[in-house]
Amino acid sequence: MRRFDPTPLYRASVGFDQMAEMLDRVLSSDLQSPSYPPYNIEKTGENGYRISLAVAGFRADDLSVEVKENALLVTARTSDEGDTPREYLHRGIATRAFERRFHLADHVRVTGASHADGMLHIDLQRELPEALKPRQIEITRDTGSTGKLVQADAA
């Protein structure tokens, strides 16, 4: 089992303890990570992302997408009600219930989910608040003798 040692990170930075904990959690859970259902994570734009899960055999009513405290939780339950008992000679399509969890970064929100052709697509968007966006700071200069500040010419 691998373990991430964040000590050097703590010596040279402030406020990155959550990142160090997340790296430690990811590296320690590598071995027990479930592989069902298979999924893709793609970047769809500068601030857009899409998670696509292969959910063959599930109807849209069987699936649930929930966001809670920076975690995206996708669950599926099997609905055998109304189905007649079947005798399989070979059963290669897995339709077992699952729970898949994705950790979302701050300011990432789910904008929608769609189910088509055995795929569940979840669209995400990163939206930085105005306070975190880069902003230009006006520079003033001292005229010298009067002590009054004068705005610098805009370039």
Give the SSE layout:
Layout: H1 7-12, H2 17-28, E1 39-43, E2 48-54, E3 63-68, E4 71-76, E5 98-103, E6 108-116, E7 119-126, E8 140-142, E9 149-151
Antiparallel strand pairs: 1-2, 2-7, 3-4, 4-5, 6-7, 8-9
CA-based shape: elongated
Instruction: Tell me the radius of gyration.
Output: 25 Å
> What do the pLDDT scores average to?
80
Order of helices and strands: HHEEEEEEEEE
Largest pleated sheet: 4 strands, antiparallel
SS strand fraction: 25-35%
Instruction: Indicate the low-confidence ranges by residue numbers.
Output: none
CATH class of the largest domain: Mainly Beta
Under the CATH scheme, the architecture of the largest domain is Sandwich
| Integer count of domains | 2
Strand line-up in the sheet with most strands:
1-2-7-6
Task: Indicate the structural class.
Answer: mainly beta
- In whole angstroms, the N-to-C terminal distance is 56 Å
* Tally of DSSP helical segments: 2
Beta strand count: 9
CATH topology of the largest domain: Immunoglobulin-like
* Fraction of residues in H or I helices: 10-25%
